[in-house]
Amino acid sequence: MKFIESDVLKALSTVDDPDLKKDLVSLNMIKDIEIFSDTIKFTVVLTTPACPLKELIRQNCVDAIHEHMDKDLEVEVVMTSNVTTTRSSAPLLPDVKNIIAVASGKGGVGKSTVAANLAVALAREGAKVGIIDADIYGPSVPTMFNCEQEQPTVRQVNGKNVIVPLEQYGVKLISIGFLSPADSAVVWRGPMASSALKQFIGDTDWGELDYLLIDLPPGTSDIHLTLVQTVPVTGAVIVTTPQKVALADAQRGLSMFKQPQINVPVLGIVENMAYFTPEELPDNKYYIFGKGGGLNLSEKFDVPLLGQIPIVQSIRESGDNGYPAVLKEGITQEAFTDLAETLARQVAIRNANFEQTKKVEFKV
Ligand SMILES: Nc1ncnc2c1ncn2[C@@H]1O[C@H](COP(=O)(O)OP(=O)(O)OP(=O)(O)O)[C@@H](O)[C@H]1O
Description:
Elements: H1 5-12, E1 16-17, E2 22-23, E3 30-35, E4 39-46, H2 54-68, E5 74-81, E6 99-104, H3 111-124, E7 129-133, H4 141-144, E8 153-157, E9 160-164, E10 166-168, E11 171-175, H5 190-202, E12 211-215, H6 222-230, E13 235-240, H7 244-258, E14 266-276, H8 293-301, E15 305-311, H9 313-321, H10 331-353
The chain binds adenosine-5'-triphosphate (ATP).
Adenosine-5'-triphosphate binds at residues 104, 107-113, 135, 137-138, 140, 218, 272-273, 309, 311-312, 315-316, 319.
GO molecular function: 4 iron, 4 sulfur cluster binding; ATP binding; ATP hydrolysis activity; ATP-dependent FeS chaperone activity; metal ion binding
Organism: Fulvivirga imtechensis AK7
Pfam family, one: ParA
């Protein structure tokens, strides 16, 4: 039987993207259809390279061709991706598809550890990733990425000086920590830190990025306001630990992004230090800080729980050694990879369902 392109599209229109709940053809995800006598070849363009459903979608496509066309056809599916965005008309950084704020209510809950490992995990999956360390109280990106001794350079683009971010483990990075020596007790005043963040956003040569993560200071500060006033932020991730005190603070952070004047979608909550696990006995879980806190918070605010990261000695060691835990095979790699994939899915869902976040304009 001779088939034409519309037969393939008709068959594939029975396959849904499980997250976006629409069929692949309506979502414009099918490209480059080729029809040979006994083979059908096409490309599926996913919404992120970090798609955990890649294999399921591929298999569903093969099954649909067999069911709706001919069960003996050879099916070749090329899986590729084009990260979605609502930011292409943004005045600043239009080539950065998604800006993701990583925030926490309390200090020391592991926000920077999560941000650094998320960035590396997304890059490992093939995404173009950058990170801005705007944590004025404890900029840790230079240490976590083992580039404390380095300095970003400046170059001219169209007659304008721009900062060239460093690059490590496939991630472009810049830190407020590069602006002052690590051992100097610089007390950053709000306005200085805010202008540094504006420079990192407006005067830095980020090029094309799929995800730009912003590691914010703990709590709610001037820096948070500067961020949402400077660029439309795709969404926020809230990092917490399971203790009551941390959860109460996380709730305040979450509420800030949800305030109608700010209105940044919360992509989800990460419960860090969710339980202790000895690396050699990964099935043993000890809930030393309490159990279920992250889940309760996510249910209360109706936002996803993106993942639970265990307390593992090597996560602390990797941070201190400048070699992110996600690069080391084992439970830490699994935990951060799963987290990155879940976050990437939430970004795609957010982009399919909501318009670009509006930049916040405060009237005084
Ligand atoms: N899951 C984990 N297991 C073991 N150690 C962890 C884990 N998460 C973070 N840590 C360690 O806890 C300490 C604090 O983490 P981190 O600096 O990421 O916190 P933070 O929330 O960014 O802090 P702040 O914003 O106050 O600077 C670090 O020494 C880090 O290595």
